[in-house]
Amino acid sequence: MALWGGRFSSETRNEVTQYSESISFDQRLFRHDIAGSKAHVKMLAARKIIPAATADAIRAELDRIQKRIESGDFRYDIAMEDIHMHIESALIDALGAEGARVHSARSRNDQVALDIRLYLRDEIDFLLTEIRHFQRALVEQAAANPRAILPGFTHLQHAQVVLFAHHMLAYVEMLDRDAERLSDCRKRINVMPLGSGALAGSTLPIDREMVAAELGFDRVTRNSMDAVADRDFAIELANALAIFAMHTSRLSEDLILWCSQEFDFVELDDAFCTGSSLMPQKKNPDVCELTRGKTARVYGDLTALLTMCKGLPLTYNRDLQEDKVALFDALDTVKMILKVYPPMIETMKIKPERMRAAASDPALMATDLAEKLVELGVPFRSAHHRVGAYVKYCREHGLKLNEASLDQMRETIPEATEEFLTLFDPDASVAKRDITGATGFNQVARQIAYWQERLA
Ligand code: ARG
Hints:
This protein is mostly helical. It has 18 helices and six strands. A two-stranded antiparallel sheet has the order 1-2. It is elongated and about 100 Å long. The model has no long low-confidence stretch (mean pLDDT 97). Residues 22, 26, 81-82, 108-109, 112, 318, 320-321 line the site of arginine (ARG). Residues 22, 26, 81-82, 108-109, 112, 318, 320-321 line the site of arginine.
């Protein structure tokens, strides 16, 4: 008979047991479930709700159960539904009636809310460390290649020349906001729900603040119904994970383009690529492609959580058991990404000479001509028009922008001087972008130093 079987006269159907179990996925909460129970019984004893000796015995037995689970010497049985029931049953098996006191003033509804919060808190701390590694790998690539210039793109068309380092640091910024989002979400996760009971709190004189302090929470939840019903913190986390995955997916797309034969800007280490079973010459950037693919999974997890919650009447409904499936999948996927990317970025070989060859297309410097005209007092819109006309002239005459003579240039840009003919140098173009946030050598060196110090 199940722990809740008192009012039932027939056993649960087999299919229903299978349908409703969560032990297959919530067993990973065992450490947090045990930590929560240990704090709970310590408080129960302090409030004289259970004898101190019982609390000590339960805490010692919980430690033994944890060791058994860690060593694989613990049998799971779907008849016991979830990790909470498994650990409680093991306690009762070992301690009899004394063990059966652990669940005083507690429901699985507040217990599972507590466990998830404890678990997610640890996961976020781990993710934050890993994101720093990822950022460091990008910063080191930037620092190792401070003069590599490549074409920057908008609409996937050549736009202006930029530094490879600037491109890397763009992702460092994105990852930094991802870390910020996680830390921010952690604040709302770090609130202690235990004591909310099933939905209405408890008649027993428990000390929730003591449990919160014991488990390192910032404070206790203020409303028992909210505490057992809502999973907004899980949705926030899934959202932060989805945005992180989106960022890595974009990085992946850049890398996929860059290692194509058409670009040939970088080469990923063999350890991060796979071959074709048919075409002997192939080396494919599968890790990057998989990241684009897996990002879709993380979006799915976020959508599942949002959808799961939108129609639920207060308070706890069993639908919420599914939160863990989505959350764990999103976390596992992101943790895999974070395992693979730092070493893949660190070992990536960049090809500065190929980048430079692409960056020497003088059309990339057309904006510099327009800005030179602005310096000479021409209103920007007219400057833009003149340079546009010059681009058209060159196209019609089969010339690159740096191949026309000054006289030819003056047909469309009357203000052009000798200096205009020197504006097609990619290095000079980059160097001139010397304002905060721009791709100039000085500015990017400043940013690299900033990140190296911050991530040290
Ligand atoms: N297995 C459940 C879950 O993961 C635990 C809470 C169940 N509560 C209940 N009243 N059935 O959400």
